């Protein structure tokens, strides 16, 4: 399978990182698309430097699991669905031709960039196969299946699919710690490290599913419903 995950900011891929690691390990092709540049995510660096540092951190995170790395560079906090952004997302999907797309949950997520990312994926999903809408890459061979990843710390999210990532916790932990520039926020705000924050969430979902570490997903209703076998566990 070819699995493409959409991360609105550099570090949102962590919500499905263990699952990506698991599928990468069994020979599936993985890509991570970082949609915005994360330029406001620092209190000590200016926007330009923050974006540059976060691109390197995101690339390092993708490298942990040998995922293809795509950086779209949209402005942090100002992502909208319009013709230009749709065509950009459409092209990146066609370039990879995924069987599965993982993106945020547009009905339950809290952040406008997360919701806009999911909306963009939703908006172009059928278009990916339509030949009369031209982009640089040829149309996808089939409409990708869509999975919503868990929300930040699981708020409002009712999973329909769990993935046991217990053997891949260590890789997920490595990916979290690639995002060095983000470690101060959690510590300052809540007195927990980024790793602790992610670990609690991952163990919470794991224990719900009867394993130590887990990740949760939800399958949105969409036309057309796909009836063939396959997909995440
Ligand atoms: Zn985010």
Short description:
The chain is built from 7 helices and 7 strands, in the order E-H-E-H-E-H-E-H-E-E-H-H-H-E. It is of the alpha/beta class and 233 residues long.
Descriptive tags:
233 residues, alpha/beta, Rossmann fold, seven-stranded mixed β-sheet, binds zinc ion
Overview of this protein structure:
By secondary structure, the protein is an alpha/beta fold. It has a single domain, classed as Rossmann fold, CATH 3.40.50. The protein is built from 7 helices and 7 strands. The chain has helices spanning 17-25, 47-64, 83-96, 112-124, 169-178, 183-190, 194-209; strands at residues 2-7, 29-36, 68-74, 100-103, 145-149, 161-164, 214-218. It has a 7-stranded mixed sheet with strand order 3-2-1-4-5-7-6, sandwiched between helices. Strand 1, helix 1 and strand 2 form a beta-alpha-beta unit.
